[in-house]
Amino acid sequence: MKKFAVIYRILSVESSNALRPKHVEYLKSLIAAGRVVDGMKFPDYSDGCIQGVLICQANSKEEVKAWFDKDPVIAGGARTYEIRDYEPMSLKA
Predict the structure, then answer these.
(1) Count of CB atoms within 10 A of residue 15's CB?
(2) pTM of this prediction?
(3) Which of 3, 15, 23, 61 has its CA 20 to 30 A from that of 33?
């Protein structure tokens, strides 16, 4: 399996807030299935801002896309996302 970063961008704070409970439940299901293994969020919740990054394990970007197209904040048009290959970097000299 490979790791991928899913980067969320807010399109509408109002819509994102309204869909957040369903979004959180959906993410919990991805975490329980071992699909989402780590993540972080940014405290700026303004329209157009990057809101967070999730690290996923999957066989392909297409597999990850199939999961996140079903995320309520994506399906509802409140956020968009991109999927990037993920490689941790060493901070050791």
Answers:
(1) 16
(2) 0.90
(3) 15
